[in-house]
């Protein structure tokens, strides 16, 4: 409102609603102003009061505020909601990716409204005058008092400016264009024109409109000819450049993302809408030969030709159906309501009934129906559609009666839009995906990671929402706790949850029950009902009141299903409930078996899901089926004995769960291993004991299955049987070790082919696996003593694949046992057979060595020695030597050798006195008689008790100086084990060396002996006497002159530096220069370190070679090595070298620079001299290269720092030499 200078009141209303958007007055304030306009007119007459209007922010700023409040994820839902409010039955969304009408033309300023890329929205209802008015309002709506309108063309619609700057609406007989930027220019924001006047309007171009819309949803030239369009089209050009309204840019990716989010909640979007039946999404592309999905689908085609550089084109425009060339409107998504059993008519009648309500209405309006959806989604990259269907039970309620005063007052308040209209829905046949209930205000509120309600149903109501319609208004925690909130919106939402929605929820549950009586698939419907009952533990705190009220409504309802008498619905007072929540395992199978009993005995049982039982138990009392009830039923008759074994086991589990052992008396439910059942009884005179088997003993007693409890029962059941034993209930007994041993022997007698002399079990049920289990039991229970006289040791005959069982008291040794270091060789087995020992060819690796070492011997050191010990004790006890005589006389030589070799591998610590005594008596060793040479040695077998002198002298490849028992390494090892004194081979070698010096051995024998020593040097290197004798023996010859030398006379020829240093010197050995001999020579004293005396001697040789004019290459190599060695010596011990340097100053041993170095001027001559070597005092360092290089010899001192210091090569050159070079340079240049 405003006044002129004359104080006259200006008009409050803007009559031009079709051309200018209304001011954004707050709705409450506007109502207040209008309702009190008389008061304001009265005040205006006072000359002292000046009236003026409220200042409003610019339109663009208001729209930006709306965009800030309304996120773009809801804009498509707002469009759908508006279409439903208008009564439309179908909505179609199109993304048009063509680039059309892009060229600006001042003649046609409205072309920008028909540009593409764009989002196009169609619905099949037309605008009325209120719609045209409402779409131009901000912060207000024309349907605030409409019983069935949610908010058509209110703030939500303005969120479309997220993606566009210009809005075009075509409906019925006109076009409306909205350009919010006109407000900045002081011009009208909206422009409207009749369809029939478009051709006559100079600012409009029909061609621009048809470029965008021709053939789309019935739009064509004829629409402008007729002046009517039977529907509504919204055209929103996408914003591609930032504007003052928004900097958000939209392209195909963003639009398709909006489409995708809409598809994800597709069925939710239509579930509670009042009229909408179909939702379709199209993409307008440029595909060829696209075929319509269905015959009634319209395909729009626009053919473009003659494109210019600006992207505009002259276009021929046509509309067709079916197959076409050019851009094609391609259907990618379709959701439609399937009209099943006149569902749509029911919904329409419900809405009509509500519209006719008046203040005299005396009954609630209720409508329930099954709504089915068919969804078709086009597979990416193909023409194939994936389809799926869903069916929901929906109950709609418009509450009229039985309302609390608070609720009734709110519904009658004209200033508020409170509608007692609610809906509850649940899927009829839910899939396996978890179902989370959601909250709707006809369209779903924004989804959150956690369910807003925690309910298993969807709730729809006229909730009081936040201004951006994203959240329900709730009181704060403090207000809710105090109950002092008076805000009408908060009170309304609370009353919806406590009065109307619980009642509708209860009606839905009743509807599900009635639906089960009309249709097949009873179990699915029972599941649907129970699933639809809320789980109080999962609900949001704010909804507890809803649950409490709901349960009060259904407490006496027939909502409990019993399968008795063919299945029927009953209330809680007639039901017998089964409760298996406390069962930790086999819940399903136990419940089924108990149910069989209840059915068999005609009981009205009801089995509730856990969440239903938990929730209902807070509001009603249940009669639960108990063990005593089951016991009573089983005693009525013996029908239960015909149950399947698994059912009997489940009944037993049921009793066990409650530890109701007393109720098992005289029930045939005790399971035996042979598959039968016997009665539980206290009287052991009538029944035999039934033993409990552990997992390890389950298969130990073949043929005796009727004596044992069924072993396959669960561990929990076994615990109960053990508790029963502890309490001395019935005939169930524990299996003691003594009983187990007797039963195993009984089983062997029962199943073996023979039992007396040999226990042959081949071909019987006592297979190897059984033997293994028996031994596992024996060893686990540590009861081997109970089986000493029971045949349980397997003997395998590979020749005929038979198995014989032996007793532990039999004397046995195993030939091979996995994990042992030295299996028994065949020769050892044969030798043992001559000592009356029985050898088992093989033995299972699953038997424990430690557990059986007392009874069975194994091929290990300790076990084998125990066997020898036992043999000796046995010989002493019997008092005869028959066994020894048989061995010494008849045992083959090879078998003896194998035995010696094996005995030698035994650990020394394992040997006992008895075992050593036995071995001493066995003829196992070879004696060598005294002879003149090694070609005539004589051998014979002898025991150590006959000759205890033994040596390994046979390894020496020449004649021995003694008469001894010749022992190979195996003999020596065995002798060592049994403590026989033997001669030291090293001493024999020393004695041979002494004999060599005395000439008792030929040169050939000496060479053979030395090679033998070197080959075995590792054995002798620590013997000082032997090493010393080798050091003083001159057995080496020098390389050049073949002089006989000791090791310490020569140098190691391996280092290249020594080879270079001693070039042309007789310093290296002629033989034994390869490995491993050269290493031995080094250890014997072969020289590797050069002394200063050696260097002086080399310097003298260099001096002689220099005088003899040997080739420079040879001298150079030797001199260089000499200088490097001198440098090393000086570096390590400069003082010692300096004290003796005078002896080198007179010798020509220094290699000087004969070649001009790189970088030295080419014109200047280099010093020349015929000799290769010079005395140390005749040269200077190359640091003086620019002073005297032409007149004096120089040495490259980069690697000879200490030599330069020793010989003072860095001293200043004589002045006359410097002047001489200067003259040379002057002369040269």
TrEMBL record:
Pfam family membership, one: SACS
Ranges where the Sacsin/Nov domain occurs: 57-289
InterPro entries noted in UniProt: HATPase_C_sf, SACS/Nov_dom
PANTHER family: SACSIN, ZINC FINGER, C3HC4 TYPE (RING FINGER) FAMILY PROTEIN
Protein name (record): Sacsin/Nov domain-containing protein
Species name: Potamilus streckersoni
